[in-house]
Amino acid sequence: MRAPAVRHPRSPVLKNESIAAYGWDSSARPESCGYVAPIVLDIVHGLGARRILDLGCGNGELCGLLARAGCEVVGVELDTAGVQLARRTHPGVRFHNFGVQDDPRDLLAHERGHRFEAVVSTEVIEHLFAPHLLVAYARAVLVPGGSLVVSTPYHGYLKNLALSLAGHWDRHHTPLWHGGHIKFWSRATLTQLLTEHGFRVTGFRGAGRAPWLWKSMILTGRAQ
Asked: CATH homologous superfamily of domain 14-223?
């Protein structure tokens, strides 16, 4: 899971116009994990998926939760510091230093060709210049009919109105956070992204705060 919005790494590293270092320096649970992870675990349980890929796993906190829930979980993370923290904190989980711009066949080679029943990606897609790469990567490593579970900050009419009335847009957009949010998704736009890249959306959940003012939303899509 991505670092919370208050983290401002001093020296971001650029890799092909993307931030390759998000400032991971702690194994502490990201703030978003508190309200996103329980719902993700519930969704994964409902899917009956046992072999899970956490795409953009950060410091591995969600991987650890999934592993303790009995899943066979693998983590993928572009930030090398995040991978190192994850390996130290969760030695029973395999972590790979890849990003969504990399060839998914490299991951499958490390995993001896074994695909995944579900891919989860929490609070990642809002950081990406090319978010379609995340969806394409997930589809490439899923078994036929496998599921993608993706969370991102929620944007809808009532929440957007509340942010405007409260004068919190600057704080919400975090423009001074290197590697921060550059895509702001609604249910409709995220559904369109998944649909255009071979998924049928099968579920929607809000996470954190009151309904329609949610902090995040979680969409589930099934590979077609």
From this structure: Vaccinia Virus protein VP39 (3.40.50.150)
